[in-house]
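Pipeline run #58 for the internal structure catalog. This entry was flagged by the ingest filter as a single-chain record with no existing model, so it goes straight to prediction. Upstream metadata was stripped on purpose; only the residue string is passed forward. Reviewer on rotation: M.T. Logging verbosity set to normal.
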Amino acid sequence: MTSERFQKIRPLAKGGFGQVWLGLDRRDADRRVVIKRLHDGVDTEILVREYDLLRKLKHPHIARVIDFQTGEQSEPNLVEDFVDGPDLAAACESLNTVEIGRLLAQVLRALDYVHARGVIHGDIKPSNVLVQRTHGMLNTRLIDFGLAKRSDEPSLSISGTPAYMAPEVIDGKGASKKSDLYAFGVMAYRLFSGKLPFSRMPLKDLCKAHQKVIAQVPSEMNEALPASLDAVIMRLLEKNPEDRYNSAGEALSELGEALDIRWDQETAETLKAYLATGRLVGRERELASARQMWHRLRNDMIGQVSHLHDDQDYAGDSTISLGEERRHLLWWWGSQGSGRSRILQTIADDARIDGGQVVQVSGSGDGALGAIKGWLLGLGVDIEPITLAVDPLQAVDRAVELLLQAQKDTPVLLTLDDIECVDELTLEVLRVLCDRLSEFYIDGADREPPRLGIIVASTGVDDERFQDYPELHSSQQLSPLTNTQLSEWFCELLPQQAAIPDEFSKGVLRLSHGLPGHVVALLGALVEQERISIQQGGLVIESDALSAALPASLAEALAARVSRLNANELDVLQTLRVLECPVPVRVLALLVDQDDTALGESLRVLLGRVLIGADDQDETHYRAEGAGTAIGED
C-alpha cells in the first residue's frame, strides 16, 4: 500500500487544495519521490483525475507518475518522480537566447505529445516546468497536471494562472490545445524578454489586456532578440485561437527557424515515447470482460463507473451485459509480447482510481505460495497463520480463508502475471478458492459472495483443474493483431501526418507475428536507427527500413518461444517450416508420427505461442509462422 511503500521526509509546498512532500520509495533503493496529499475535506476526485490522465503519459520531458492509492489502508496520495532542479524561469536566468530556445523546444515536444494523447495541460507556466541536469545536459520536465483535462471534455469553470490565461479561457470557452499554446507564448515572452506581456495591474485589467491589448514585441525589451523570434512569439499570443499555430509541433519548427537552429522535430527518445502509450487495439474483448467483473464487484449499474467507460483504451465496445453474475477469475494467455502485462496494468490502474484495493504480483520467485503471500501482504494481512501451518494442505486452507476475509468494505482486485512460474500450492489455492466461492451461489445460500476479483496471465492456456468452474472462471487467448488492427494502432503509436504505407504495415505484421510487444520493439529499433523520423512536421519511413537487423529483444523473444518447446512440439514446428505450405492435419499426423492426443497438445501449444497458424477449410490446415534473424527475411 502507498502508506507502507512511501515515506514522507519533509514538506516542499502547500497550496489551497493540498500539500506536496518530498518522500522516499522504499521499494526502489529509497529513491526520492514527490507525494501529493489533499487537505482534509477536499474532494479526492482532484487527485483521481490527475492520476487518470498522467498514467497514460510516459515521456522524457514529463514527470512520471509512480503510484496512486485510495484504498481503506491508506490516505489518498499521488506519487510522482522527484525532479531535482529549479523551475524554468530560474534555470534560464544565466542562459543565452539559443540555450533558452533549446529548453523551450523540449517543452514543445512534451506539449505536442500531451495533445496527441488527447490531454490539455491547462496551466503552462515556468513554475510548472522543472529543469534537471542529467549527464551534463539540461532537461525539462513538465509537472502539475492538476488542472488538466481531456481534449473532448467540456470545461466547467475558468481555470489557470491569470498571467498566462488565453483570451478564450477568460471568456469562459474552456481550455484547449490553442490555449496551451497561448500560455506557452506568454512563458516564452517572459523568458526571452525578461518581462511578462501584461503585469503589475489589477486582475480585472489583466484579463482585459489578454482579451484586447496587443503586447509590445519582445525585442523592444531585449534588443538582442531577432525579429524572426518576435514573429513566432506574437503569433502564439494571437487573440483569436485560429490565428495561432495549429500544433506545438508547428510552433517547434518555426522556433527553430527563428533561432537559426536545425533541431530534430522529435528526438529518438521523444519519438519512442509515442510507442509506449498508444491506445490498446485488439484487446476490447478482454478489457470488456475485466470491466464487467469489476462492475459487478462494485455493485454498480452499467455506465456509473466513468473511469472504466470514458477512456480511449476502451474504444469500440461501450456497452456490456452483466449476465455473467458469478465470475471471479479471468485467465488471459498469450505469447511473450502479446500485451499481457500492459492490459493487466491498465485494468489495475482503472480499479485503483475507482476506489478499489489493488495488489499486483508476479509469479516468478519468492518460493512456495509466494504470489499468495504477496497478495495478502499487499492487502495488509498478517501471513503468520500460513507460515505456521503444519503441512501444505493446512497452508492452502489458511491462505484461502485469509483471502476470503481480506475483502471488507472495498472491492479487491488481485492480478498475477507469469502464473506459469508459480508453485503447485499457489494453483491449488486458486482452485480451492474457486470451490469456496461456488458455495456462495448454491440455491438458498444466505451470504453475499466476497467482492474479490482475480486476473492472472500466462504464456499458455489455463490449468485444466479450473475447467470445473465455468461460471466462476473465464479463459481468453490474447490473439495476434490483424493487419487492419495494426494499421489502426499505428495511428496511435506514431505522430504521423500521412497514412502508413501498406507494404510497411504488412512487413511489420509478418515479422512481429502481430504481437504488440514485438511491434513496439521493432518500431523502437527503427527509430533508434533513424529509419523512422519526423521531418518538416511529417512522418518519414525509409524505403528499406525493414532490411535492418532484428533488435536483440525481439530476436531473443522469438528464440525464447522456440527454446521452451518439448520434443513433440519442436518436431511439428520443424516439419511445417520445412514444407513451407499449409498442411492438412491428417497429413501432419502421419509426418510427425504422433497420436491424436499428443499432436493435439503440440498444436495447442504452438498456436498459443503464435509459432504456427491455422486455416479453416474443409479440413484444418496448419502452417509455420516463421521469421528469420533479419527483418527482411521470411
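catalog note: The two ends are 48 Å apart (CA to CA).
catalog note: Residues 300-310, 312-323, 626-634 have pLDDT under 50 and may be disordered.
status: ready for reviewer M.T.
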